[in-house]
Amino acid sequence: EILPNSKSYLRLINNGLVESECPPLDSAERKNNIALVNVISFNMIRGVINNRYIASQIEKNDFFESSDFLLLVDESSRYLSRFSSINSETLPLSSIEKEQALQIYQIMKHKFIKKNYNVVVDPMFEGCGFINKSFGDLWINSKLVEVKSGERKFSLIDLRQLLIYLTLNNYSRDPLLIQKVELFNPRIGLSFKEDTEAFCENLSALSS
Q: What is the pTM of this model?
């Protein structure tokens, strides 16, 4: 009832409004490890933005055999264990899976880490009512970006997630300026971008 246009808008997004930004990766070697590979690659981006890693350090051949990477895998695995819907992963990662983690990281680095970009990783949105405080993926120059790295098109859950973040931000004591929203899938190379006002109107038939 709140989102009467959601299904039609989603079809429009996936059938015409998405943009191709890079070639898709090869199909994952082991489907149960997709989530882990995705989390590892985002944690590498997070680490570079937060100065935990130097970008050149990650791109060295020996990084994926280092103690830093083993710790990263452990942290990512423990994070995923919080979600019962995620299939348990198979360790250790294969060389193909490590290569895909590096590829996803490099795609995100090329897209998000630039000299003129003001990037905030894990932007926080205060809780409201029965909704706890939440963390987005990236806020870049007044744009909220959510990274979805599965082997799938964008879904209604993705649209609702953006809308919830926008709502929480609207009621925050110190809201971020969010003029645009973006969904980006580095694994299949597609993105969807929209002005916040148009996104709300197209999804709900209401203004932001």
A: 0.94
